[in-house]
Design a protein that fits this description.
3 helices; 26% strand; globular; binds zinc ion
Length: 72
């Protein structure tokens, strides 16, 4: 069970569904979702980003933007 994360809602551009920030010092993730999008969109994004964390993708590629480009 993943416990070292927090969810934050921000007003992001519509084309950005969300992203993750990782604090390597504290081993802590901030999953940023888009307040402008629907609950269901954010739920989907959340599950997608959790998948990255559980896959250990952040230990393969450090840059989140690069990670997202590599995965999609
Ligand atoms: Zn992704």
């Amino acid at each position: 069970m993943l416990e070292n994360y927090i969810i934050a809602y921000e007003n992001l551009p519509f084309k950005v569904s969300g992203f993750i920030m990782y604090d390597a010092v504290d081993d802590y993730y901030t999953i940023v979702l888009n307040r402008r999008l629907s609950f269901w969109s954010n739920k989907k994004t959340f599950e997608h980003e959790i998948g990255h964390i559980l896959n250990g993708d952040f230990f393969k590629i450090k840059n989140v933007e690069m990670l997202e480009m590599a995965m999609h």
